[in-house]
Design brief:
By secondary structure, this protein is of the alpha/beta class. 44% of the residues lie in helices and 18% in strands.
């Protein structure tokens, strides 16, 4: 399984340096290629750098509402699965974000093992759909 991950690139968008580093380290152990961005604006640069297989995004950005974040990402990566991370455990927010078509909605706290399980599932789903 890990060898198959070498051709998959995961983009992590999170303004929390510790979260970016933790996820990046754990995913590198699984042999995924990992790109990181602190802000959504950096994502445009990542489009040129590599083909993205999956996006993990923290919805707590100070300047963009969560639903707009997903909409903006989908403009550039329409067919790429998106996993969101948030502190907001309200059912209303989860419903709105899920309506945007995200693959999974994580509410903090969560374990890296849970995240890796969901990421592997999203990547496997993408393989089945020909991504």
């Amino acid at each position: 399984m890990k060898e198959q991950n070498r051709d998959k690139t995961i983009l992590i968008i999170d303004n929390n340096m510790e979260m970016r580093q933790c996820l990046s380290t754990e995913l590198a152990k699984e042999r995924y290629n990992v790109e990181i961005a602190q802000q959504l604006g950096e994502v445009l640069e990542k489009t040129v750098i590599s083909q993205i297989s999956l996006i993990v995004v923290n919805l707590q950005t100070p300047d963009i509402p969560p639903c707009e974040t997903i909409s903006m990402i989908k403009r550039f990566y329409n067919s790429v699965p998106i996993i969101t991370i948030t502190d907001d455990d309200s059912i209303e927010m989860e419903k709105r974000i899920r309506e945007e078509g995200v693959f999974f909605y994580f509410v903090k706290p969560f374990t890296t093992n849970d995240m890796k399980t969901v990421i592997n599932s999203a990547i496997d789903t993408g393989k089945q759909e020909g991504r």
